[in-house]
EBNA-1 nuclear protein
Amino acid sequence: MELKQPYLLFLGDAADPLAAKVAQGITTWRPDSCLGQLRLPACNADVGLDDLTIEQAAQQGAKTLVIGVANRGGIISQDWISVLIDALEAGMDIAAGLHNRLNDIPQLVECAKRCNQELFDVRFPTQVYPVANGKKRTGKRILTVGTDCSVGKMYTSLAIEHELKQRGVAADFRATGQTGILITGAGVSADAVVSDFIAGAIETISPDNAAEYWDVIEGQGSLFHASFAGVTTGLIHGAQADALVLCHEPTREHMRGLPDYKLPDLSLCIQRNLETASLTNPNVKFVGVSINTSAMEEAQALAYMAQVEIDLGLPVVDPFRQGIGRVVDRLLEC
């Protein structure tokens, strides 16, 4: 799945900035891919791009209108349909990562066919993936793993890719979720792949490469999350990672959505992930820990990270507060 760039980001009638987090992620990590934003009158979000009409965006060369907003329930609102049709008729594809499909809306399907444009439902893979073979692949790979869901694996992965490129190291982010795909324009939504083929899908998006080339693979879920450990396991095996980074949010009282499950001990989490990853790469190692300290005061956050670094013997950073440089320093020693 590859999306044509540049993008017009559709913020629709977003109730607040959080509802436009997909658009904000694209703006933050791929600003050169964004021509502008399109907001409806009721929109309460702004990602800082020029406000453009469909006509203006088309004149400036927009290739894809990306739905960068998630409303309640994650559905494509009927209030958006006329705007989406206008975009198709202006020569743009449409991409979305919501729960219902663009391709299930007859008006959009008919218009896309008539205008020779494409509808991309990035949450739902269209490619047929093979069963994984576990064969050693050339190139290098780093994978982010987590103590829980939504602890910063995508942000950390994108920060690592950015830092590597800033240092002149060949690297690419490999998206495994719908938001990452919309940010980068390519990838596979691992949680929508039939379980037998998850590892094969990750092998497909991270194939043989040059010896010093780093694929930065976005992690999903957690080995300790009763709901999603299966997705995580397949992704770890398919990644065949040379290096791992542990992502953690320390203020949670339990696993996300599972009040009966406490967060795992960090040392145990490292051990279990190494055991799982060693099936396809016996030489895998951890190179750092990424802590999401957004719910902590700075002094508290710094003290916590310093203690974790002593306990684990690994570089520990908050990539938003401090950058990811110290983890990349360790990575490049691999």
